[in-house]
Amino acid sequence: MLDQRFKSSLWRAVCVLALFAAPVVMPAHAVGPNDWMSFNKPNTGAVDRNFIRRWEANPPPGYPTLSPGNIAATDAAIKRYELIVKGGGWKELPSDQLAMGSNGPAVEDLRDRLKLSGDLQDESWMPQHFDYYLEKAVKRFQASNGLAPTGIVDKRTRAALNVSAEVRLRQLKLGLKRLKEYTRHTAKGRYVVVNIPAAQIEAIENDRVVSRHAGVVGKTDRKTPLLTSSIHELNFNPIWRLPPTVISQDLIPKGRQMQRAGQSVLVKYGIDAYDGEGRKVDPEKINWNSSRPHALSYRQKPGEGNPMGFLKINFHNGHSVYMHDTPSDSLFGRNFRAASSGCVRVQNIEQLATWLLANQGGWDRSRVDEMKAKVKREDVRLKKPVRLYFAYITAWATEDGVVQFRRDLYLKDGVGRDVASY
């Protein structure tokens, strides 16, 4: 009898030691482009702002958003979320900030929430303690929700966690419908997609992400439009012809403000004004409080202050929008990147341009860099236009089983403002 008790005690001790020694078993995923989500490095504690800026500005490639392989994966995700909703969903987390080392009931609630969404499969013997495995699960959740994977449950992460399972299910169903509309044309060949809610641009070749770029999309009151077109031309060091929206909502109000201070907006920003006959107008003779500024056209020469940077990417559309570089790249390091007048700014546009020009002959990265360095004007028409999609996909799953969500930036999903507010 004593021998049996000893063996039983020994077995319990071995089991406890095994909990410390065994690696966490995360959801099974195929080896592929989302391997960067393994997150093996522990968090040191404080939020690393430089890491967040680098992550936001340089999104990892991952799987194509519009891949045909995402259809079956998204359908499977819908079935999973239907079961979650049927089971009552998940509990809303309190307002506490949680991180490695935190303790308490809120940590256990977080653990239960991440188990339901499949980000955590660890059965901890200390469920109210925020350990390394829970931190990895938080990072996985953050990355698949378009947030920098810090492992810290801050205000933004908590808001994303607290979006109800019912809302996420509705988003997935909308996502599946939208994916089906696009993926009839995206299985083969080359194309570029701008996923507006993610503020990201992908260059795709034969259903593989060649490069993924952070973008800046339109403000909520100057939305980037949904469209399908083809990229047909690149303008190196372009002259910026100010669009009507920028003239009426930005230039003229700024002109009035600076005129009151005895300054000229055109002189300060190196912008030229032209009348209806194409004649250049003396900037000192423009009364910004009159109706005349509305009748003029405006251009800005290439250079350091040109808001299009060194490159403009053209495609036919009825919205007067385009993709372009920018001399100010600080916005790329932010999570919320809806700040343009409808056009799309592209981080590391040199890489995208090199890919677009791959079949032109004589164009490589060094030549693209030279165009930028020497501020050389040149327009290049593509021999074979590249398909382009400005899409609006807020929820989808990839073929490795990872479910992706993004904020409903322009409230197109009809699921409430909570999904747009983090």
TrEMBL record:
Residues in the signal sequence: 1-30
Annotated Pfam families: PG_binding_1, YkuD
Organism: Candidatus Filomicrobium marinum
Recorded metabolic or biological pathway in which this protein acts: Cell wall biogenesis; peptidoglycan biosynthesis
Entry keywords, A to Z: Cell shape, Cell wall biogenesis/degradation, Peptidoglycan synthesis, Signal, Transferase
InterPro entries: LD-transpeptidase_YkuD-like, LD_TPept_cat_dom, Peptidoglycan-bd-like, PGBD-like_sf, PGBDSf, Transpep_catalytic_dom
Active site (catalytic residues): 324 (proton donor/acceptor), 343 (nucleophile)
GO biological process per UniProt: cell wall organization; peptidoglycan biosynthetic process; regulation of cell shape
Protein name: ErfK/YbiS/YcfS/YnhG family protein
The family this protein is said to belong to: Belongs to the YkuD family.
Molecular-function GO terms, alphabetical: carboxypeptidase activity; transferase activity
Domain (L,D-TPase catalytic) ranges: 190-371
